[in-house]
Amino acid sequence: MTFEEMFAKAKELIMKNDVSAIPGHLAVQINITGEGSGVFYIELLEGKLYVEPYEYYDRDCIFILSAKNFFKLADGSLNPVAAFTLGKLKVEGSIEKALEFQNIVNQL
Q: What pTM value is reported for the model?
């Protein structure tokens, strides 16, 4: 799987979510390692969702993981705390914001 294919699948999956009731700002950069490696970001801004295929320098945190584990996190089949503990997910930046992001994902 190329990065372009992985990103298109990820964006389609992410953009299906209704975030209109979520206020504030949260920006998470996703660094994909291994097959399909590349960088994209997810930003929640005053009830709007943005997903773009490049680095975001005003981010709150960075998630570093494989495409396979990203999709497992996204569909709920991989617990983020377990993934972090097992080394399948690395987080740089604000752990508080990473947990806030995961809580939003769990609500969706």
A: 0.92
